[in-house]
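PROTEIN DESIGN WORKSHEET
SECTION A - STRUCTURE
LENGTH: 345
TOKENS:
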């Protein structure tokens, strides 16, 4: 039960950090660490009660392994669906690549760790191969842990319910199809409209800022097409101010804030995007000093795995120095173990 103590510590850290600011990725790290410690403590406690319980734990481990295989097969199938439905692109290949990685990485690590005969191989080659296998396991574990923190907290944060009437609702663009609003973007606009219409008649309705510039493959700016949709759905023209110059989520947030200020709508801001994008949008809002909270709209089920993977990769890239330092630390530990094993002691 010793692991219950760190579980409680991580749970307290999660609650405190979440209360201070829900828009922190470390909240997800604390949450996953707390749940992980609690799970390991529970498994060890059950395994210590007798042989039958140990057999049950072993069956549980086998079941988890089967679930991982099922997950990999699901991602492979989803990757094929994405290619058929959304076309060929690197982003649409992500779930397919993830499925392949989940199947191949454990095999590659096992071959490196258990395959070479250290005695028969020349010099330190066998030790280096084993070290590479161990490093591969460590890096894969780090990727799995960080994705778990990101994915779980994304789901938690996407359930955020705004309690204040926002002065401005910013709708993030996501691309047009032949100059028209596609279903993915329409879900964001419909969510913004539901917030807009939920405001009592005695209170000033929020400013709607559809945000998005014109891409190289688009005949007009996303903000203009989004504004047209909002007006067609009954929004008051006085409450719709499109932002049409942004080319990224960060620029969406920065330029929309300028639109809000120019319109004289001081007060809280609510950002609307799809549910898979809420956490990254919230992190970006915090990084630019905005107090905006973010809510999500529904996304087609087949699109979610690739979308989450894209968001995860984007966040890892944005925190590349921290992630590089973590990987280098793991490599350093493995390197020290290699040097120690080769010392003539």
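SECTION B - SEQUENCE
RESIDUE ASSIGNMENT:
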């Amino acid at each position: 039960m010793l692991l219950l103590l760190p579980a409680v510590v991580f749970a307290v850290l999660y609650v405190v950090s979440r209360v201070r600011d829900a828009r922190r990725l470390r909240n997800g790290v604390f949450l996953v660490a707390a749940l992980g410690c609690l799970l390991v403590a529970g498994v060890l406690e059950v395994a210590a009660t007798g042989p039958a319980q140990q057999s049950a734990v072993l069956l549980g481990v086998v079941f988890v392994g089967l679930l991982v295989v099922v997950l990999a097969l699901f991602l492979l199938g989803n990757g094929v669906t994405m290619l058929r439905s959304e076309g060929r692109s690197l982003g649409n290949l992500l779930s397919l690549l993830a499925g392949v990685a989940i199947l191949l990485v454990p095999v590659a690590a096992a071959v490196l760790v258990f395959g070479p005969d250290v005695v028969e191989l020349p010099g330190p080659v066998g030790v280096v191969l084993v070290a590479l296998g161990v490093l591969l396991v460590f890096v894969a574990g780090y990727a799995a842990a960080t994705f778990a923190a990101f994915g779980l907290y994304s789901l938690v944060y996407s359930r955020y319910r705004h309690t204040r009437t926002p002065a401005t609702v910013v709708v993030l663009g996501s691309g047009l199809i032949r100059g028209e609003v596609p279903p993915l973007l329409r879900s964001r606009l419909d969510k913004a409209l539901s917030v807009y219409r939920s405001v009592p008649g005695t209170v000033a309705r929020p400013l709607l800022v559809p945000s998005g510039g014109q891409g190289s493959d688009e005949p007009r700016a996303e903000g203009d097409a989004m504004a047209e949709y909002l007006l067609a759905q009954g929004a008051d023209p006085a409450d719709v101010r499109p932002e049409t110059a942004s080319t990224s989520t960060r620029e969406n947030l920065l330029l929309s804030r300028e639109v809000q200020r120019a319109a004289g709508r001081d007060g809280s801001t609510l950002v609307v995007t799809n549910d898979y994008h809420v956490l990254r949008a919230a992190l970006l809002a915090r990084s630019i000093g905005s107090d905006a909270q973010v809510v999500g709209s529904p996304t087609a089920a087949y699109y979610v795995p690739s979308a989450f993977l894209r968001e995860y990769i984007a966040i890892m890239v944005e925190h590349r120095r921290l992630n590089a330092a973590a990987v280098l630390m793991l490599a350093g530990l493995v390197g020290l173990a290699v040097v120690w094993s080769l010392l003539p002691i």
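SECTION C - NOTES
The first helix runs from residue 4 to 20.
The mean pLDDT is 87.
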